[in-house]
Each structure stands twice: as C-alpha cells, then as structure tokens.
Amino acid sequence: MQVLKFGGSSVANADNIKKVLSVIAQKKGKSPVVAVVSALGGMTDLLLHCTELAAGGSEAYRGLLQQAEERHIQTAVELVNAAGQDNILRYIKEKFREIQNICDGIFLLNESSARAKDRIAGYGELLSSQIIAAAAEGALWTDAGKLISTNADFGNALVDFKRTNDQITDFFKKNKSHLFIVPGFIASDKNSVPTTLGRGGSDYTAAVFAAALNASSLEIWTDVSGMMTADPRLVANAKVIPGISYAEAMELSHFGAKVIYPPTIQPVMDKGINVWIKNTFAPGEPGTLIRQNNTNEGTVITGISSINKIALISLEGSGMVGIPGFSRRLFAALADEKINVILITQSSSEHSICVGINEENLDAAKAAVDRAFEQEIYLKKVEPLIVEKGLSIIALVGDRMKNHTGVSGKLFHALGRNGVNIRAISQGSSERNISTVINSDDVKKAVNIIHEVFFETEIKELNVFLAGVGNVGSKLLAQIKNQELYLKEKLRLKIKITGIANSKRYLIDEAGINTADWENALSNGQPGSIDDYTAMIKNKNLRNSVFADVTANEAVANCYESLLEKSIAVVACNKIACSSAYPYYRKLKGLATEFNAPFLFETNVGASLPVIAALNDLVRSGDNIHKMQAVLSGTLNFVFNNYDGTASFASVVKRAQDEGYTEPDPRLDLGGKDVMRKIMILSREKGDEMEMDDISNNSFMPEECMRGSVEDFYASMEKHEEHFKKIFEEAKKAGCKLKFVAEYNNGNASVGLQHINPEHDFYHLYGKDNIVLFYTDRYSEQPLVIKGAGAGADVTASGIFADIIRTSKS
C-alpha cells in the first residue's frame, strides 16, 4: 500500500489537480494507492473567515460563499467528464447549502463555537476530494471523517489510535480498489460529531492511514522539492535536504518549517515507515527522505527554522530562590489556559524562569500567572509577570550536533558579529536543537547569517553599499568587477554591490547591482538624500553589510555613527570623520568595537599605502613611536616635482587636478589642511589626543589665494606667480628640492614647506608618491619607511577595495 498526500497548493486549481492526477496515475499498478488531499488552496481560511463574519453580524459571508461555490463548480467542470458532471455538481450545491445554513445560524446567534468552526472547516476537504475522486479513473472516495476517531476537543482533537486503526483496517478489508481518494484534516468523535485534526492536519491524516495500513511509504507532495535547509522565502541559497531523521524533521516542523505538520511524524516513526517530501510541480526531483537515522555524511547541521510572533514571559524575584514549586505553579497556570510553552530557560540562581509562548496568548498568560502568584506579588517576593513582544525563535537543528564541539560558539559569534542581539537561549539535553530568541526585525538577517556559516562556508558574501560614484567610485566598481572570479576562487568571497548612491539619488537591490551597467541602473534609482539612503540600508538589515564612503562630504561622514550602531561596517576614504573633533573620532572607534563593526580608513593617509596598518601593527605589538616624518600629499609632491618656473604654478596645480590627484577643492591640498588632517589621524591612531588647532601650519600660499571660489583661486595664483617662482629659485640655489612635510615629534605636530637636501630620504620622491618614516624604539637608528603612490583614482580605489576585503575577515 502506498499513501500519498497532496497539499493545498497542489490542489489549488484545476491545472494543479491535473498534475496531481498525473502523479497518481504513475503510482497506480505497483500497489494500491491512498491519496489524501487538502482543500482547494486558501479554501479553509475562507470558510473560517465566513464564520467570523457571520458571528460578527456581517452578511458579507454570503457573497464569499457564492464565490467559493462557483470556484468549485468551475474546477469540477474543467476536470470531470460530461458523464460524471451532474453528480458532482449536485454534490457541490448540496454541500454549499449546508454551509450556508450553518453560517446563517451563526449569524442569527452572533456566536461561533469551536464545534461549528470544526464543522465548517472540514467542508473544504470534502468538496475537493469528491471532485478529484470524480476526475480520477477508477477511484473510490473514502470518508476519513468516519474512519479517524478523536475525542471531542474541537479545534484540538486527539486521535484514538486503537479505534482508528481498527476502523481503517476493517474498511480496507471490505473494499478493494487500486485507488482510494481520502479527504484530509477531517475526523469525528465517538458520537460521529465532525472534528478536525488541526491546521495542517491533512499531513496527519495521511500518516494515520499509512501507520494503520503498514504502508510501504508515505509521500507528501507539496510545492517545494523537499525540506529545505532554511525557508527559501528568507534565504535565496536555501538547499534541499536529501535525507533527515524523524527526530530532526519533528524539531524543524515544531520550530516553523511549513513543509510538514508537526504531529505527522509520530505515527509513521512508530512503524518505521519512510516519508518522502516531493514536489507536485517537479515530480522528477528526488525530494527529501525522512527515516529513522540521518545518513548524510559530513553534515553537522541539518536545517534552520524559525517561528515568528513569539513573546517571552519572565517570572522573577528573590523570593523564588531555594523555594520548590514555583515552576510547577507557573506551568500549571499556563496549562489551565491551554497555553503551549515553546521554549524554557531558567537561571542557575533560580531567581528567574523565562518561557516563550505565542504572542496571541500573551494577555491570557499574564492574567493567569499574575493571578496564580497574587500573594507573592503583593508581598514583593516576586515581580508581576514581565512580558516582551515582537520576538522570534530561530532553531538550529541537527542530530550530529551532539558531542560536536564549536557549534554554539560558531552560531553566537556569527550573530554577534552582525549585531543580532540574543534575548534567550535554550538547548535540549538531546543536543539536537539550539534555539535562540531574537527581535523579529532581525529574523531574515539572522537566518541568512546562520545559513551562510553552516551551509555556505565555501563562499562568503558581502553586501556593499557605496556612497559616491565619481572618479574613485567608478574605478572601485570596475576593480570589483574585474576581480570577481579571483575573489571567488582564491578568497572564497563574493562582493555584491547591493546599493549605490550619488548626491541626488540612490539604488538598493538585494539581488545585487550589475557593476557593468551601474550608471543606467542608478539613473533609474530613487531620488533622495544620504539620510534616505542610509535609513534604507539600516531598514534592510542585511548580513555582512559594508558601507563604503567614497566622497569628501561631511553629511556622509555624519552617518557613520548610526551605521556602526547597526553593526554595519564602515570603510571610508573620506577624512572628515577621523579628522573631526577628537570625541567624535573616539566615539566612532568605540562603536566599532562595541557593535563588532569594522571601521576602516586606510585610504585617509597614503591612498592604498599600508600606512595606518603599519602604524597599528607597531602600536599593538608594543613598540613606542617617537617621531614621524612624512610627505603625505600626492598633490603637492606632484606639483613641486613638476614646477620649474617655465610654466605657471597655477597651470601645474590645474594639471594635478585634471589628473585626479587633488581634493575636489584644491585649496585643501595647497593650503596644507589635507596634510594636517593626515598627520592628526596618524597621531590619533598612535594614541595621542590631538585636534587641528594643535598642529602648526607653515603655509607657503599667499592669503589672497585662499579666498573666494575655486576660479578665484586659480586667478590669484596666476597673479602671484613671482611668489611661487621665488620659492622655487631659493630651493634650487641651495641645491635642495621643495617638499611639503608633515612631522610628529613626541606629541607635537607641524606641517610646512621644507628644503630637502640630496642626502634626505625625501629627496628622491617623484611624481605623486608619498613617504612616511617611523622612528620607534625598535626602529631607532634607521626608520621604518613606507613609500609609494599616494594619490590617484586607481590607487585610492584599490585601497578602499582592500579595506572592504578586510571587513570579511573581522
């Protein structure tokens, strides 16, 4: 005997039912087939909604019932041949008259009992099964409502297995057929009053029949190709689980996996009957096999599941310590209200007990528990029940977690690194399940994080949100595109550009933005400010998020704080944040530590040169830095390397700007402010509390040149050409070169133009190169020297790119 079950999506309409009939036809002949079917998709919800409308005094139920009747008639006409249509159409009309009469009674009474709801809810399966039986060749319709016996606990009926087994086996001894069509979900009590097996009970019906008939297997046909490692609606990379144990399947279904109804496993597990989860719409897919043991080698974690709309209730008080009976009274109070406890955790001090329940039961739970402990609350031995809403449970399930070290650590580290706060933790003694309670807003992010850690360890994916797509930003996008294959093969890393923004609009796409066509995509983006963009980034709450600031904009720098607080990594070539007031700089560094969010800004000094990285390594390894000397402006080095008095100083500066070496406003470079920022950042990273006012600036620029617009700046430089020529000639006469030098010496910092003689390390510094000399305890006689290109879109982009990669290793 084979037992097949087809869910609501499989029998949602005539086209889907034809696929069901095709599957059944392929199964016939090998052994008799029992096909258990659900109601047409959404029908049970509609019928129950009609009872609510009727009980509430609304006559709208009549129109809904008319639409439902027409839907069944249309389905029957499409499926049943002309010879059988009269009988099935007559049956449909008769059943809808019964439904109408019940709803009319509810309407008159303005009250809907659990018994009435059970009666109404069962009609969906009766109707669909009769239609399918009429359409299937040689099928015998079988009334499960008369074969499955339950108690009279309407809406939550329990199966009387002995009586049910006897009735089912007797029926099949008396009736011979190759195909039995059975309505799922419905049953009756010992007095033949209709009951149901609970929502999802069609699975349970199939399991009860399979167990009673000692079926060779139970196949549950649905709209997915098996149980998944996670909910595919949350995790795009969810995978089909090829094999799973009964115990694992029960754990996953209990904690929210919708593929199988939780009680389904028990009847078949007792008989050792294998269960297959199959896809009606892809019958060739292998599906998932549920059996006694999980035989999939090499898998520690089998799947991830989640339940939403959870509330935590906590009973706390010093009067609980060492006093027996508090737990019993708590659970008794909840049991009296028929409130199911999903999760339990208790402090070792016995000072508190915390349980998870469905949020819909929260008010009843609080009233019941406060009532049960009224005396202790009055005497202040315990507090009134503490409640928290808006929570969800995520369960990590796997038979092989037992005695496998590091699973919990891996789980909690991954969640903490991404800023997911855990409200409660529970692990059963079987070590098959680790359950965590988190805010519901974090569920999608958390499930993706966990899935990536345990099922996608080969490739880690970063969600990068880029601000600024000018010269440097566009180079960065091109570099990421060009390195896509290398990152995947060598670093097992995928950098997905999830968001792009310029000063006027932004675009966010969770699937990833095509870096080959980003300009066109952004042109069709959402108009908005940087605040709008970052608000959307935080709202998306995606795992492994990185915000890359490729601007020189103060408004963008002001967003770092709120991003870090959401555990979003920040990579910045924008120097404004790190050169702002010292308390803000320290706050950002503190937030990065507190929320496990990398804050990287290597390109603030020296573009892609590892200046800050080297400085940090020196400090962390215990070296003491006494002195730093540096040429930190690629712009000024380029200018003084190319100015010889034959062409105007202004024209050389303009050439530097055109080639992308200067800040958007070149006066930041020429006036020394940019170099001041850089030496201040290095001083702060060294550990000093330094502000811009603490740095002396020996500027070589005439004050007039620094006023007005950028155009005024260039005009004024042309006017003062003799001043610049004089500076050059004086250095030349002394046999020196001009270099704009930043110095730090035991807490004092300065910047200014200096004459550099041929013996100095700075003399042979060409083009746009930067150089930094670190004099330390370890490098006392000869400094540690870092030298190379310190300006330009390509090298700056590569520095940002390197910082983005570093965030993946944090």
Rounded to the nearest angstrom, the distance between the terminal CA atoms is: 56 Å
Q: What count of structural domains?
A: 4
Rounded to an integer in angstroms, the radius of gyration calculated over CA atoms is 36 Å
Q: What composes the largest sheet?
A: 8 strands, mixed
Model regions low in confidence, pLDDT < 50 over at least 5 residues: none
Task: List the total number of helices.
Answer: 31
Question: So what's the overall shape?
Answer: elongated
In CATH, the homologous superfamily of the largest domain goes by the name Dihydrodipicolinate Reductase, domain 2
Q: What is the fold-level CATH name, i.e. the topology of the largest domain?
A: Dihydrodipicolinate Reductase, domain 2
Percent in strands: 15-25%
Strand tally is: 30
Strand order of the largest sheet: 3-5-2-1-8-10-11-9
Please tell me the overall pLDDT.
Answer: 91
* Proportion in helices: 40-55%
Question: What's the level 1 CATH class of the largest domain?
Answer: Alpha Beta
- SSE class: alpha/beta
**What is the CATH-assigned architecture of the largest domain?**
2-Layer Sandwich
